[in-house]
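re: ur msg from earlier - yeah i can do the flavin-adenine dinucleotide complex, just paste it... oh wait u already did. ok heres what im feeding in:
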Amino acid sequence: MRFDYKTQVLVVGAGSAGVAAAIAAARNGAETMLIERSGFVGGISSTLPWLGYHDQEYRQVVKGLGQEFIDDLIDANQAVAPCYDPKCGSTFSLNFHYWKILAMRKLTSAGVNVLLHALYVDTVREGDRLAGVIIETKSGRQKIEAEVIIDCSGDGDVAARGGVSWEKGRTKDGLVQAPTLVFSFSNIDRAELVEACKNPDLNYREWLEPYPEIRKKFVAQLDTLPSFVFGGFASLIEKARAQDGIEFPQSRVVGVKLHKEDEFMVVMTRVLGLDPTDARSLSDSYVKLYEQVEQIMVFFREWVPGFREAELKEIAPILGIRESRRIMGDYLLNKEDVMAGRRFDDGVSMGGYHIDIHRPSGSWVESYNVKTYSIPIRSLIARDVDNLLMAGKCISATHEAIASTRVIPICIGQGQAVGTAAAIAVAAKKSVRDVSVPGLQDRLIEQGAELGQSLGEPNYEAIDRFGQLPHVEDESTSGEGDEVTQGAWLEKKSL
Ligand SMILES: Cc1cc2nc3c(=O)[nH]c(=O)nc-3n(C[C@H](O)[C@H](O)[C@H](O)COP(=O)(O)OP(=O)(O)OC[C@H]3O[C@@H](n4cnc5c(N)ncnc54)[C@H](O)[C@@H]3O)c2cc1C
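and the outut:
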């Protein structure tokens, strides 16, 4: 077979995981190519603030490249330092467009060959090896030969078409977490919004309701906290439903107050039953989602304090898919590992974000707190073949575990780990499975990654200021049986 490109490491998909993987592979000496179907790099990380740099004891669990991105964004005055949060650890609010510039600059200065508008379409498999991939571009169908491939497509595309095992959705019915098309507002009145958050009846942060002391501490920070997460105001939605006959896709106001004084990110559209690997299902969902954006905008302006004059700033250029195919690797990370904070001998990155399942049916979320855990390299090496690694939301983890590992900083940590492993494998002319784990861990630590060596004690000062949730909380079933509808209301209330 004639190949149009030849590279040592090929990364498919330029989301947070793919960007980190490609930079790490190139910096560690491998000739690296990154292909991406869109006209920008960053994937979903260029549409959302980044949650989960810190664990629930406010210790930073992702460093290395993750820290470098924070530093560069702050130095360029395009972000503020992560803001602590008792449930999510921290929120890092940034200028998403600047992140695209920065990521592209870092890729090219590391020497990565970036090919945009390049849609991966097929895998070339030879026995136990993946020889390369086929892409469709404006230049026609092209073939790329690679020694190691890293699947960062988020959908496990390379694995699925290469005959590698995968799973999708929850075990009982295969349904994936609800996807969301996010959008943002500008021109909101921050002071009015913060006042409303202080009103216990509105229950701005529902997670904190059972813990009045934590709630008091956290709400006291809101006057000065540049960015904070939202999940509450359920009563406003109920009233809007009762009074205006509103039909609504979400039962809570969900979103993030961004670091820009007048900006707010809305994370409330949702479509149930979507199959992220089915083109018809994806396309049909956009029809519903754009209608929901308008419904939700009207709701905010009429019902949510501080939004009367709000303007639609931006609708994300891509639908946010929380969960798709999960590639089966040498180890399947599970809920118990994550909740117990298991540290693996072959851990190559870390996580401490709660299990955050946006319910595949009903509304709202199902959540379990976690202890800081490590992610073993075995969960990043695809089973069945010799030279396929993965990072990001398609790693080898269960439906529940992926709901913790999927946040952006944790995807960056995995990306750095597999990019480095790929470069070591190529240099040593070995299978990715035969890379020395202590050697890989030493290299990652040298390059600033956190593998537990510098985690330290819980951050008691932050615990004192922001409060700490108990490890085991009562299971919330609210939202489980919700009938979620949308539609006719818009005819009465359009913008
Ligand atoms: C609605 C929503 C809200 C979220 N909120 C937050 C949040 O506030 N903070 C947070 O930290 N995390 C959040 N998450 C989780 C997090 O954003 C994602 O899990 C994470 O960004 C996944 O990164 P990734 O690199 O694995 O995938 P993606 O960012 O999806 O990147 C995959 C890339 O692969 C490309 N690609 C896919 N298929 C192909 C192909 N066939 N050929 C070529 N390229 C391809 C895509 O275009 C994309 O650029 C949210 C997720 C969603 C969906």
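cool cool. The pocket of flavin-adenine dinucleotide is lined by residues 12-18, 35-38, 43-45, 48-52, 119-120, 152-155, 157, 179-180, 182, 267, 320-322, 392-393, 406-408, 411 (CB under 6 Å). ping me if u need the other ligands too
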